[in-house]
Amino acid sequence: MADGDGCIHSNMMLLLARSLGSLKPTPWAKVQKLINYFPNENSDGSLQLTSRGQDAVIALGVYFLESGLQYKDKILPKLLGILRGLSKAKYVEGPKGLNKYKLPMTECFSFCLNTILCDVAFRDSDSRDEIIAAQLDLMEVLTKLCEGSYDIPKATLGFTIVPLLLGLARSVGRSSDEERPLISTVLTVNNIKLCQTYEQENISHHRRAFSTFRPILPRTLSSLVINTDSPSPTSPIPFDYSESRRERSPSPLMGPSRESILSSSEKEEKQEVSSIYLNKVGASFTRTKPWGFEIIPEQDHLEFCSAHLQTLVSVAKRLLNKDVLKNLDNILKDTLAETEKHEIWRFPYKSFSETITVVIVTLLRDVLEQEKDLPAKFMNDVQDFVKSLYESGQVDLEKKHGHPHDKDHRKDQDDNDHEFNPYQLTVYSNAACVDLLFWAIREISEAENLCLKLTEKISNNTEKKLLLSHTPLILVSLEALGKLAVKFPALATTMVASLRDFLITPSPILSKLNKYASRENEKGGIKITVTDVSQTKSSSNTSNNNGKKAPNKLMTALENLRDNAIHNICRALKAGINEYSEVVDAFLASISNRLYQAEMSDRSFNKTISSDSRWQTLKVVLKFTHSASLSKHQMDKFKS
User: Fold this and answer.
1) Which region, left, alpha or beta, applies to residue 310 given φ > 0 means left and ψ of -120 to 50 means alpha?
2) Are 257 and 265 in contact (CB under 8 A)?
3) For 173-218, how does the pLDDT look when each residue is reduced to its tens digit (9 = 90+)?
4) DSSP labels for 401-440?
5) Are the beta carbons of 419 and 348 closer than 8 angstroms?
6) Beta partners for 538?
7) What contacts 443, CB < 8 A, 6 or more positions away?
8) Is the CB of residue 84 less than 8 Å from the CB of residue 136?
9) SS3 at position 310
């Protein structure tokens, strides 16, 4: 947390809110202290949102949730009144508070307010429709402003309206089904989670604390791909895996089994992750499902009625219109050019189109995938829309990777320490499209077509400089193939074949990752030894400040792709057992045959090669498939 009077005020407001929330019932006179700091209206009826006013709104929302929705008739109208006035409000930059984060102040405030309201909607079914309707109404107003329906200054549109929209889209539809509301995890005081009451009440449930959410976008992204400094995952995953949940992508907190082995310094570093939602471009809460080999539907989620879903999809189509996005990019470019550099702070964006696309597609995915029994016409409409987005995104990926505009973004990212990478955001939005395409499929013929697209994607030859960038999309595609086998068991053998070929052919991306990761590991550093009277220290240019070897990002990506493919092969095999009882035996036989062919092919190309060399070459193939070898005991458990 940054220092300063603003931060002190923000911390004190949160402490007061959480202290009052622990009083049940809370005297109204004490709650009034929070309301006294509420924003004032200007003479024209618009709100004036200073930093302290925003802190007061968020603090009241925190109290409202943590008190069990006390004084609902008085507090909820005030929060909804602030929400409805966001588009016309005047924002005053001031001391820190919500201004201490990397993302724009208006985006942070919009995100926090709507995160609070979503949890209120989840907990109180009577006010659910009113809250969701108010959020969608605001989204429509902001969409009209982005479309140019009203004449407003470019600076207002670029620095206020679009960030408001981003914060809204990143939070709508997300809620916590646990005791602790989401906002209590996002906002901290002095890097310590404030809700002492919750920590005491739920200490026996600490293993579940917030592990069901993740801040970043693609469905199957492993935290080890994004945070490549993390240790490598344990592999293989045993079939008697006891966890009811398995991380499919980055989450603010690691699972208990991994957290228990961290050092105290590493745990302190992990505590900072909760602030990612107010610092990282496009980060949002995304509900994960308990899963192993089956797809288990959510039991509790924030439900949208049919009319709200129609509105959401309609707004998404308007926002993701190519002309609208291009116009917003041009407006931002002009605004940045006309604004003095020292006047722009905490604003990482150099374009809007990539971020808007990823937050809107992710919003659609997170809301729609929870809904069942939707009209066929509506699902077809969504499927056609997402197909066009995916195809357009593939074209963008081809265009953007060598564009000089992308290099400028990377330079700015290095200079300003902002995590804005338009190419990576395009990859993320494509990954979210794959999840939506899987959700929308109802017929086996559609599943076959998607299987062909995904198989083509994971078999593409990727340039060296894009290996890490494309890894998230490959991970999503691998999981989609496994899920298709569960959804359509008749296609399980087809999915197994695609995943098997990805591993043992192997796929070009696996070959290159192995090639370049091995080279990186072989590079030796110059070792320098410094000796003095008291101690002797050894260091290397390949080590970090703690004396540990710097992680090999390519090897980490390789291991994640391999483990993900193996897990989804197992998922597909289990799904196919009922259709074809010998599917596992047939798979292992095909693996053995492929390995034998690899060795014989090697001998025919070079008869003079030694047996040791052939074995070393064969081990490269084996390391992609070693986890697929099962003991008889494991096989029996798998079939049962």
Assistant:
1) alpha
2) no
3) 998 877 888 898 888 665 444 444 444 444 444 433 333 333 333 3
4) TT-HHHHHHHHHHHHHT----HHHHHHHHHHHHHHHHHHH
5) yes
6) 529
7) none
8) no
9) helix
More confidently predicted of 70 and 467: 70
Query: What are the boundaries of each domain within the chain?
Result: 218-250+441-522+550-640
- b vs e for 188-210, b when ≥16 Cβ sit within 10 Å of the residue's Cβ? bbeeebbbeebeeeeeeeeeebb
Q: Of 34, 97, 40, 101, whose CA–CA distance to 64 is shortest?
A: 34
β-bridge partners, 33: none
For tokens 């919009």, name the residue.
Answer: 110
Beta strands 47-49 and 90-91 are: parallel
Measure the CA–CA gap between 294 and 244, rounded to whole angstroms. Answer: 11
Cα separation, 413 vs 484, in Å, equals 38
Read off the pLDDT of each residue in 96-120 and give the average, rounded to a whole number. 86
Contacts of residue 632, Cβ cutoff 8 Å, sequence gap at least 6? none
- Which DSSP category does 236 fall into? S
Rounded to whole angstroms, the Cα distance separating 313 from 363 reads 10
Q: What is the pLDDT of residue 341?
A: 75
C-beta separation of 164 from 142 below 8 A: yes
579-624: per-residue pLDDT in tens?
Answer: 888 888 888 888 887 776 766 665 565 555 555 555 555 555 455 4
- Residue whose pair of structure tokens reads 């926090």 in the numeric block: 112
**Above pLDDT 70, what percent of the chain?**
68
